[in-house]
């Protein structure tokens, strides 16, 4: 699929802001599997860039390279002006990382977890205790500070994990699907913390499969597929590239969804997408509400019984589908690449 270009070619748009992350032609393979195929990306200082992509697209591989946990096979990447291969120690002093799973020691208390990270970050004992107290308060964990992390809920472990990544006050934060598995309330709380960090000047690179998360948080979004950026821009710009309104219809139990798609297709401006599990057909159209009577008559003539019929504006899900050929899915397993 050709890359969708917004304002420039080959990756994120150029702006007058200062890029603190710069990735050029990055490649990485695991045996015969090419996880990254010449990926280009820039992230401006003090912004949130959301990275979307299907499983195996290369998101986690990219983050691990930027965090100096993996070496690329080709290309180059700079973080805060330092080369991730030639100057890894300089990079590590400036970044924090929260992976897909909470990396806390369940046999230590919440406070002990943070003090351990502080010690590994070479903070003095007094500074380590002070920093742990600050972060426990910020993440609403003070009352649980003396409890073993193994007794924490999933949301509490996630907050502790994020707190641990902030012990050394990094200027750049990598968040690799940080809200996977959280309930809606915990996810909203995590979003608020991320917004606060960026308001204070932190730069965030966020990988996610929650499209609402990218829509709510990201200043810019990059869509990765097949190990390269295939589209980038603001959420508004990406949605505009997909086109106009969407017809979304759900069939009643027992109705033929293929027949529904076939009856609706003549009114579309693109191919109908069928979600058999949800019993739903989505179709880009042009003409708006004026087409609805004709569409309903066509469905009725095909013997299709409807459960719901609506027009809506494009969403990031439509962008994801148009670019990658598949709907976004939230998952709890780590991607292969």
Write the SSE topology.
Layout: E1 19-30, E2 33-44, E3 48-52, H1 59-66, E4 74-79, E5 82-83, H2 88-92, E6 95-98, H3 110-120, H4 125-138, H5 154-165, E7 172-176, H6 184-199, E8 203-207, H7 211-217, E9 220-225, E10 228-233, H8 235-242, E11 246-251, H9 257-264, E12 273-275, E13 280-284, H10 292-301, E14 306-312, H11 316-324
Parallel strand pairs: 3-8, 3-9, 6-7, 7-8
Antiparallel strand pairs: 1-2, 1-4, 4-5, 9-10, 11-13, 11-14, 12-13
Helix pairs in contact: 3-4, 3-5, 8-11, 9-10
Key words describing this protein structure:
337 residues; alpha/beta; Alpha-Beta Plaits; 6-stranded mixed beta sheet; 4-stranded antiparallel beta sheet; 32% helix; elongated; disordered C terminus
